[in-house]
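Request: Give me one sample?
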Amino acid sequence: MERIDCDVVIVGAGASGLTAANKLKDAGKSVVVLEARDRIGGRLWTDDIDGAMLEIGGQWVSPDQDALIETIDELGLETYSRYREGENVYIGETGERRLFEGDIFPVPAKTEGEIVGLIEKLDALVAEIDPDAPWAHPRAKELDEVSFAEWLGTQTDDEEAKLNIGMFIAGAMLTKPAHAFSALQALLMAASAGSFSNLVDADFILDKRVVGGLQLVPLGLAERLGGAVRLGQPVRKLRWNPEQPDAGVTAVTDDLEVHAKRVILALAPVLISRISYEPPLPRRQHQLHQHLSMGFVIKVHAVYETPFWRADGLSGTAFSPYELVHEAYDNTNHGDPRGTLVGFVSDEEADGVFTLDAEERKAKILESLSHYYGEQAKNPVVYYESDWGSEEWTRGAYAASFDMGGLARYGADLRTPVGPIHFSCSDMAGKGYQHVDGAIRVGREVAAAILAEG
């Protein structure tokens, strides 16, 4: 078995781990990055599918994501705006297709008033939340013991208003049913973006894309590390001595042993328990990770000969809490004459379509897209489903969140180092939680903490 010695070993070649590795390397530390997959990027993955460039994982850049924007600039990458000219589509409970502009859906006046009121109430609560420490809010325990669905029910009896507000957090972000996570977890999701209003503003949260795909960010970061990144190296075991924290740590793969002073586990929390620890992690860590789980969403890519919806005066943006595809957008690549739509099927709806065979599932999803865009939507030249739930080294999407009561109980310990073991990923971010921006922020912070230790 090959032995490597270094200052810091990083487990995971996603944006967070690679950011930390670069910061440490720039400060004169020797690093090795071990990645289980056969590719760089983690949940960022740009691939060619049947001749179409598709962003299988994360892809958007919003104007508040300073850390990501700085990294994009440092790597010399270009961005372009998401297409958004024309009218948006909303489908109501009866199946009626309505066109609209702006952020508020074309719903009855009473429902619109309830939606606006809920947004105002949520913005006021979010303003009280520190995204880096939501558990510190005076009402954190109370807010963490009520589901987001139940909280919405205490604020309004308008079902369509509750469904639409719930859709932005449950379907579009946490990708879990609104009864499965707490009001505090929902407030963290909104606080991480600055406000709830930002989350409901598609033109803000889904502003730009990177020319060539967002995976170019981790690929560029990895290139700067040269041969320090080792692919196809799932870490099976970590050995460390809690009685001698300065003695370092040994990361063991099937054919490597990396001896280091520190280790950064830069991977989704649900994967931390895939590693065996000698000795085991403390009880607090074992309990904590049993209260975190990934969401579940199918990202659907449909490529057409032309962006036909634009000729109909449509932006490509579409929403409905009553549709199988609850949101969809024009996802046409920069300079591509073809048109691409991207849609999302979340949580329990995703469970349901995966009971079908591939062709039945495709037919149902395309049928839902056709309700927004017309019959032409049923005939893409390329069709692909990003299913991160079956991906061995991810196991869900977009990220991990706590179950009821877990955030207030365990959140403060999520990133607490255990001896020489540090933790870093977007799932653990405050600002930028669940986004690449958060991954980069946490990577920077963990690297700074290790450098401060000497």
Summary: The CA atoms of residues 94 and 339 lie 29 Å apart.
